[in-house]
Amino acid sequence: MRTAARTALAAVLLLAAAPATGWADGDPANGEKLFRQCKACHTVEAGKNRVGPTLHGLFGRKAGTVESFANYSEGLKASGIQWTAATLDPYLNNPKAVVPDSRMAFAGVAKPEDRADLIAYLEAATK
Predict the structure, then answer these.
(1) How confident is the model at residue 2 (pLDDT cuts 50, 70, 90)?
(2) Any idea what the CATH number is for the domain that residue 70 is in?
(3) Tally of structural domains, the chain
(4) Span of the secretion signal (predicted)?
(5) Cα distances (angstroms) measured from residue 127 to each of 61, 76, 107
(6) Interval 28-35 mean pLDDT
(7) Range of the domain at 75
(8) SS3 of 5, please?
């Protein structure tokens, strides 16, 4: 099996096994504070990429598809991930576990409540 296909399969299996988290209960104000660590690489503004792609329009978008951003890993593009609260949670916890060849140099957000807060913020800020 090719590496990209294995990565995609691993991502799907990991996401399917992810525990449910109370994203709806997340605190967007705290999530905005947590997003400060993401700002070095990402924005929530439409069309504004940095080292990483804009997160504007994130929810419902397929991973690796921002047309104005060309520096995606093959594994992320082939992952088949569609960004939702349920798929973001394990990715934000440990990006390299979900997409091993990800170019995102971020260790992850360990606390489930912090991920819920960050996801709540992203849901509001990326529309």
Answers:
(1) low
(2) 1.10.760.10
(3) 1
(4) 1-24
(5) 11, 22, 26
(6) 98
(7) 3-125
(8) helix
Contacts of 40 (CB under 8 A, 6+ apart): 50, 51
- Count the alpha carbons within 13 Å of 126 in the hemisphere toward its beta carbon: 25
Q: What 3-state class would DSSP assign to 37?
A: coil
Tokens of 124: 């509001």
Tokens of 96: 């390299």
Residue 20 · residue 31 · CB < 8 Å: no
Give the type of residue at 1. M
What residue type is 43 in one-letter code?
T
pLDDT digits (tens, 9 = 90+) for 55-83: 999 999 999 999 999 999 999 999 999 99
Residue with tokens 């990209």: 4
Which residue is listed with tokens 């992850």?
A: 108
Alpha-carbon gap, residue 105 to 61, rounded angstroms: 21
Is the CB of residue 66 less than 8 Å from the CB of residue 45?
Answer: no
